[in-house]
Amino acid sequence: MQRFPFLLWTLLFCLAFSTCVARQAPWVMRISCGARLNVHTAPTNTLWYKDFAYTGGIPANATRPSNISPPLKTLRYFPLSSGPNNCYNINRVPKGHYTVRVFFGLDGHRNFDNEPLFDISIEGTQIYSLKSGWTNHDDQVFTEALVFLTDGTASICFHSTGHGDPAILSIEILQMEDRAYYFGPAWVQGIILRTAARLSCGNGKPKFDVDYSGDHWGGDRFWSPIKTFGQGSDLARSTESGIKKASNAPNYYPEALYQTALVSTDTQPDLAYTMDVDPNRNYSIWLHFAEIDSSVTAAGKRVFDILINGVVTFEDVDIVKMSGDRYTALVLNTTVTVSGRTLTIGLHPKEGSHAIINAIEVFEILTAESKTLLEEVRALQSLKSALSLPLRFGWNGDPCVPQEHPWNGADCHFDKTSSKWFIDGLSLDNQGLRGFLPNDISRLRHLQNINLSDNSIRGAVPPSIGTIPGLVVLDLSYNSFNGSIPESLGQLTSLRRLNLNGNSLSGRVPAALGGRLLHGASFKYAATSVAL
């Protein structure tokens, strides 16, 4: 029995039963950072939502570092007094695959480093570090990544590195097809693709998909123009003819992307593009072709090899043969490991004297960080509120990831069995903490060490502490705790050191604690009104 492609069956069913409906629009969220009202920007009347209740920081007037930056007038910056980690937390995001794009901003009205350098993470995975000189390069005034958002939220964090205050112009979350940019068996929901380069060859102007009238499911990609790979090495070609098979699912490339190209010359028959990359990383490379040269009239007239860092990756590429016709899109994808600091894509003609290429995309392949146990994150958030933790701690985002920027005062441990992080220590002594110690501290069930000494914490010692099974050290000395010592502390069979000095506790020490002294445990009750 002959098999029909799924899309053909769908079309026949629609025609027969008149059940076809318009395709649902992708979910889109665009935030104009620092804006108090929604904004529409020309020339496409794009809607940017106001920046309300997503994060902390300070709104300010913006200076656009580049003409490709959205024409917005405000930004939000995060002074170090706000803490080293600051996040936008966006709720009610439908489960799916998204392009997340962040444009950076400059505030010329304040006396700080005019070119701040900081790190960016999405869902706990660090995706980018701004490099010195970023304001001079269009493709560095933003960063973007393709990521799966599965829990109804999006967390986008900015991490200070001591080189100016992070300043954010805009954030975009643009839904794509779930299988967009599928690159093989290694492609799973735990993979993030960070855009390293996206080039439109032979084109003279920077453009977004919307400028090409591209499909909304394409994620409104930005295409950097590249007129030549090197002086005298190639010539630009263009056509106004239509291109077949361009805007197909799941990537939905704009047709106009294939209407320009670079073609090698008689004096330089090979084409080569070289870019800087981070070493010892994996990269997903997408190469775009359409035979738009009128001199190539049939299959076999132009055949070339494609080399990645000198290694033949695609042999005998014949665009007309492989795509099925002239003026028809062809996309080739490969994954490579790069050990050095450069990536070179070369095209070597074999039949016909010239090679041709229309566009290039390069993505760094990142493995998403495992997150901290959700119950423990919520417990720390409760602790942050109850203790009036100063902003300088920056307890925002995930406590343990990205691993380059963990929370101050929270000690993390990775559990290989569950592939989750948990908190095994709190070191918050002498930090000017006030407020009270909440019962929720017991939800940090992996704690081995609690040091909250030399603060101004008041109220009762919560009995729930006695339910933390592996607690070895509990130091609550020199605070303003009052009331009695909870009987439940006697249940802490692993406890080796307890210090309650300098509080206003009263009553009796639980018998189990007193008995523990016989086994070498260190308990200090001095300056409290307790009886053994």
Automatic annotation (TrEMBL):
Annotated membrane topology: Single-pass membrane protein
A single cellular component GO annotation: membrane
Subcellular location: Membrane
Leader peptide range in chain numbering: 1-22
Keywords associated with the record: Membrane, Signal, Transmembrane, Transmembrane helix
Species per Swiss-Prot/TrEMBL record: Populus deltoides (Eastern poplar)
A Pfam family annotated for this UniProt entry: LRR_8
Domain Malectin-like: 31-364
Protein name: Malectin-like domain-containing protein
Domain of life: Eukaryota
Stored InterPro entries: Leu-rich_rpt, LRR_dom_sf, Malectin-like_Carb-bd_dom
Gene3D superfamilies in alphabetical order: Galactose-binding lectin, Ribonuclease Inhibitor
